[in-house]
Each structure stands twice: as structure tokens, then as C-alpha cells.
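Re: the 263-residue chain
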Amino acid sequence: MTAVAEIREILTRGSIDVDGRVLPASNVTLVGAAELDGESLRCVYKPVSGERPLWDFPSGTLAGREVAAYEISELAGWHVVPVTALVDGPFGRGMVQQWIDVGDEDLVDLVPEGEVPEGWRHVLDAYDGADQPVSLVHADVRGLRDLAVFDAVVNNADRKAGHVLATPDGRVRGCDHGLTFHVEDKLRTVLWGWAGDPLTEADTAGLHRLDQVLGTPPGPARLAGLISRAELSRLRFRVRQLLRSGCFPQPPESWRAVPWPVF
């Protein structure tokens, strides 16, 4: 059994013992450990009963969207989402996700306006809380680039800086994917540094895998019950649109392109 399979087994079959809560958070986000046959794994648990109703997303669907985001990450080969599954936890049905320990490195930051570090990408200019001019920037690294392509595919409406996880071993992960897969374009992200740039062969490899697997069984079956048929259809449309354009998407003019708060 692979390490990922073992983690999934513990999360899905283990008992969840909650010992804390993440604050502040829009929806109830609990932390604890999943235990199975003497093995314990730190995890995040978000019960459906703790989801706050939203005007633009159907109620009770955020946990399923988080699991669907994980499945897309795995199907494409990006592996940018921690292992995530639907479970019956102590507070009812919800999503459980492997806890990821982060290092000291920040991949998204604010710097004095115009002072973009070497190896980083400029996103936008603004004023900070002290009314000083600053630039929002992010690192130009492979894992973050994969996350940006992933966000475009799943139509992530909430890629805040705090949702980017840089691990001590140099890997990049993303969390909080409840606001994804909407049929309307809603991409909001802090990772606009590659906007309009050509997609490389490494960028499109995952897109080609997704296009193939979403068109043939059992690919769509892995998303059944997690997102709607209309959302699945729109998902494949976005994959093909990215392949046709051959470029990272541009920030839209018709809606706010950066989430708030940014961090």
C-alpha cells in the first residue's frame, strides 16, 4: 500500500477525535486526529452542518467540492491538494483532510512598491494598513505554478495567500477549496503573476491528462455526487479552453479578481 493509500485509509476508516478549532474561519473548521489500528494522523475536519449558507453556491456542497478538488489534483498528476475524503465524523457528514505542516517560507508577500525580488512575480500595487505603497508578489516556482493552473481548472474563487502551504521539504500545497467548480467564471486568486504568459509543456501535461480522463470512464465517476453534471461539463470546458488558448488566464474586468482579505 502506498503512503497516499495509507493516509486515505486512516482518514476514511479511522475515528476522528477533535481537539481544536481554526479561528477565524467562515465555516466551522475543526482540527484533531484520525486514528485507525493504532495509527494516528493529524487532520482537518469540516462538517457540512457547519457550512455557512452562500448566495452563489448551493447549501451543503462545500465539503463535496473540497473532495472534488483533491480528485482533480490527483487525476492531473499535480498533487497540490492534501489527501481529502468525505466521512461521517463526530458532527456528521463532512470532509476530512490530511494536516500539512508548513515551513518558515512565505510564497506570497507584500514588498515596498516596485521592489520585486529576483525570482518573484508582481501581481498588483496597493496601499497597506499604514497607507504605504506596496506590491503584492509571489514566488516563481514550479509547485506554485502548478497550483495556479489547478486554480484555473477548478475555477477557485478564493485563493488567498493563507491557502498556500509551503512545506519544509520544498513542496507546495493548497487548502480551502470549498468555493470551486461554479458554472460561472469566478476565479479569484493572489497568483496572477503569470497572467497571459504562455503555458509550457510541463503546464499542459496535466491538462492533457485531465481532458483524456474526464472524457472516458471511470474518470467522471470519481466526481459523481461531489459536483453537479453541469459543473462537470463546465470543468472539462475550462480544461479545453486553457489548452486552446495556450496561456494563463488574464484577470477579468467583470468581477473582483483578487480575494479579500488577501492574507
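The chain has a mean pLDDT of 94.
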